[in-house]
Amino acid sequence: MKTEKKKTGTLFTANTKQLMITYGMVIVVYLICEICILTGVMSNQMKGLLVPLCYYVIMAVSLNLTVGILGELSLGHAGFSCVGLFVGATFSVSMKDVITVPYLRFFLAILIGALAAGVIGLLIGIPVLRLRGDYLAIVTLAVCEIIKNVVNVIYLGKDSAGLHISTKDTASLNLEETGTVIIKGPQGVSGMPSDANFTIGIILILITLFIVLNLIHSRDGRAIMAIRDNLIAAESVGINITKYKLMAFSVSAALAGAAGAFYGHNYQTINATTNSFGYNMSIMILVFVVLGGLGNIRGSMIAAVILTLLPELLRDLSEYRLLIYSIILIGMMLLNWSPKAIEWKKGLAAKLSGKRQAMKEKKPSAKEVQ
To answer: What is the pTM of this model?
Structure first.
């Protein structure tokens, strides 16, 4: 019994340390960026990337919950982000004159966007998660494209009579003279309040990490990882496969919706294009997850930051930009997936832990000093 308690205590301490390191990384990066902004070291171009950077980090961490922890390949993550963005945008534009406190309205928009995306993820997950592998990837990709195309045919307006919706054009909304058009089909949403900033983005990243990491280290998280490792064995010991798959999938979708609602408030006008909320975006987020390491939350964050900043940092090297970018991608892939690289990292970690242990053993006790 004593041995079991000791092991549990050690595991708890190790998990807590890892959590603190992850949160500490985010806070340190935030402080460094704020110092660079205050001292004028950071350019305006880099300042403009801070909010999208937070968006990509949240998207990568949330997708890792489905792909890395649950073990299901989903290509519809950008679609859930699109749902969160347009639902949150509709709320913000509609309530601009009702809720005059910007941050309260922004918080509610993010919350409503997350709830809407979570509900859509749950409804889609019920039939879709019966599939596995390539079939699941194809269906989720189709869902992403359907969501984007549905958003592009919606015309939504508001007047004293309430909300009006149409799939034809703005004239068919039959709005009053004082009415406003919120969603203009392919032209997207206009008149958005620009409430998003880097500080709120960092807070959202910390909240996302708190939700995902606590889920992973909980009993539910262990059940989800058991399903990933061996579906038949997990089912044989009484784990409810459907329940835990839906849990991971809907939480991942809700976090993507929150990220979308946050990202949308960085622009006054935004529309649903393939590059922003279609196939291209889903693949890019998946690349962040794969290069960072499946199930590796810290790796996903680092990959998202590096691959977002690289194109801007290499902008002056127009001739060699794509070459350098490709070399770095290949290098990251080899570092995370090559058996030799994994073995080298394990050996390095063992050496470092051995040195720390040796340093602790060499330290004289208080009695020896006396």
So the answer is: 0.84
